[in-house]
Amino acid sequence: MAVCDNKGDGTREEMSAFWQQHSQEASVEEMFLDSQAKQISQVEEIEILNLMCDVKGKNVLELGSGIGRFTGKLALDANHVTSLDFMESFVLKNKEINGHMKNITFLTADVTSQDFEPESFDVVFSNWLLMYLSDDEVNDLLIKIVKWTKPGGNVFFRESCFRKSGDKKRDFNPTNYRTPSVYCAMFQLAKTGTPPHGLDILYCRNVKSYIELKKNHHQCVWLLEKAFRTATSSQHGYNTFQQFLDNQQYTQNGILRYERIFGPGFVSTGGKDTTEEFVAMLDLKPGQKVLDVGSGIGGGDFYIEQKYGAAVLGIDLSANMVEIAMERSPADTKVQFQICDVTTVEFGSESFDVVYSRDTLLHIADKPAVFKKFLRWLKPGGKLLISDYCHGDCEHSEKFKSYVAQRGYVLYTVQRYGKMLEEDGFVNVKAEDRSKQFASILKQERAQTEANKQDFIKDFSEADYNYIVDGWAEKLGRVETGDQAWGLFYAEKPL
Question: pTM, whole model, 2 decimals?
Answer without folding.
Answer: 0.89
